[in-house]
Each structure stands twice: as C-alpha cells, then as structure tokens.
Write a structure and sequence with these properties.
60s Ribosomal Protein L30, Chain: A; Alpha/beta knot; seven-stranded parallel sheet; 11 helices; 33% helix
C-alpha cells in the first residue's frame, strides 16, 4: 500500500522522527530496521512483524520485488529523499527504513527447551557495546547457534545499530534475557549445556576441548571480561595469542570460538 507523503510533519511519519535520539530513549515495543539487506531478511525470515516502511521515492523501482512480497495492507510511505532526511534527522543513504514490532521476549527456559538435542548457544554477560552485540549475533547466525542468552547489562540486540551490524541476524536468531548472570548460567545448566567461559586466563586451550552435543559459549565484556565469581566455578577456555598480547575484540573472539564449537574447524 504505497502512500505518497510530502509533508515532513505528517503524523504518520512519527515513528521515524529523530531516529538517533529515539535510539537512546527507546520506542515502546517498536524497533527500526535499516537498509535493503536487513529488510529483505526481516520480510523473508524474520520473527518480527513489520508495521510500516519509509522509502525514498527513487528507491521504489529497485525495491519492487521486495515490496511485492509485503502484505497488501502494509503502509509504505514514499517520500522525497529530503523529507526522509529531515524526518529522521540525518542522511539515510540506503533510502529505506522499517518499523517492526518486537512483541514479548521468550522465557530463557522455554527457549532452551525448544532447541534440538544437539545445540550451540551463546551467552552474553555485560556486553554494552552495540557493535559487539551485532557482531556476536552475526557470528551466531553464521555458525548455526540456536539461541543467544543475554544478561540485564547486555545491550538490546534490536537497537538499530546492532541490527545493522548483525546484517539482520538479530532479527532471525532467537534470544532471551535472563534476570542475572547467575540465572543465565543456571538456565543453561538445567538444560544440559556444557558451559565454556571464554577468558584470556582460561585454564584450557579452546582447541583442546572436545565439542559437546549441547555447548554454550559464555562471553564477557571487553576489558574486565566475565565476572571472577563465574570464572571460578565454570569450565574456562582461552584462545592462545602470540607474544604477550592477550586481547581480542569480543565479537572477533566469538567468531573464532563458534567456528570451532560448531565443528567446522
């Protein structure tokens, strides 16, 4: 349902107004998806319904096949590029934004119970950087992780930038938020996962660990890493590095570890 809009103050464009500022304060159950690759994934494989699209008029032709897949009653607001930039507050080079509905997040136990007998899960503790969360979700999808569990301090995987960095993986990879790091670990243990806490100080090399039928990779924030009390009671692993350097970006680390745990190494 293509709707031409020329007035930047049109109330129908309100969900797209001041995108960056709204990123910081939240959208009351909604989220913004940006760009053609992400929107195609959301439409074809995503778990979240779209509410509307905002499209620069010059992009309507190249997006015709995607728009044909949309529900007939989905509003597609077609606007001049200048109106799009004025409403959002910055230049949208991709010329395409969508508003989705997040809905209720699943319970961690319910999510884990639904996984098959052989499963790989990622646990994120205190990861507050959206780029890193997006990168972790991208790697989780690439290496077949069935779910991602988040603690309360880990940032929102449906934040616009996290979705973009994940190339839409956070829209298709199931995730749930536990009430605390301890609750996250307890849920994994209840469902028979071998929990591998990744740390530069890990007691074993990752490559020396036999991949398990049900494995969970636990990741902490860059710098402090996982909390010492968790490391003290979990099986810890490390990725050896050259010389005295012992630091990798956590998203990069997740890719290396998940590649191995998925049995692809």
């Amino acid at each position: 349902m293509i709707v031409a809009v020329d007035d930047p103050d049109d109330p129908r464009l309100a969900p797209y107004r001041a995108v960056r500022e709204r990123d910081l304060v939240g959208r009351a159950g909604l989220f913004i998806a940006e760009g053609e690759v992400v929107l195609r994934l959301l439409v074809r494989r995503g778990r979240f319904p779209l509410r509307s699209l905002l499209v620069a008029r010059g992009r309507l032709g190249p997006l015709a096949d995607l728009l044909a897949e949309m529900p007939a009653d989905l509003p597609v607001y077609a606007v001049p590029q200048a109106v799009m930039d004025g409403v959002t507050g910055f230049s949208i080079h991709r010329g395409l934004l969508g508003v989705g509905t997040r809905g209720p997040e699943p319970d961690p136990d319910a999510l884990l119970a639904a996984l098959p007998a052989r499963a790989l899960v990622v646990g994120c503790v205190g990861i507050a950087n959206h780029d890193n969360v997006g990168g972790i979700f991208r790697n989780a999808a690439a290496f077949g992780a069935g779910a991602v569990l988040l603690d309360p301090a880990t940032c929102d995987p449906l934040y616009r930038k996290a979705i973009r960095v994940s190339v839409g993986a956070s829209l298709v990879t199931p995730f749930a938020r536990a009430g605390s790091p301890d609750a996250l670990v307890a849920a994994l243990a209840r469902h028979g996962f071998r929990i591998l806490a990744l740390s530069p100080a890990g007691t074993r090399r990752l490559a020396d660990v036999e991949p398990a039928e049900r494995a969970a990779l636990l990741l902490g924030t860059e710098g402090p890493g996982l909390p010492p009390d968790l490391l003290a009671r979990l099986e810890t692993v490390r990725i050896p590095m050259a010389g005295a350097f012992d630091s990798l970006n956590v998203a990069t680390t997740s890719g290396i570890a998940l590649h191995y745990l998925a049995g692809l190494g």
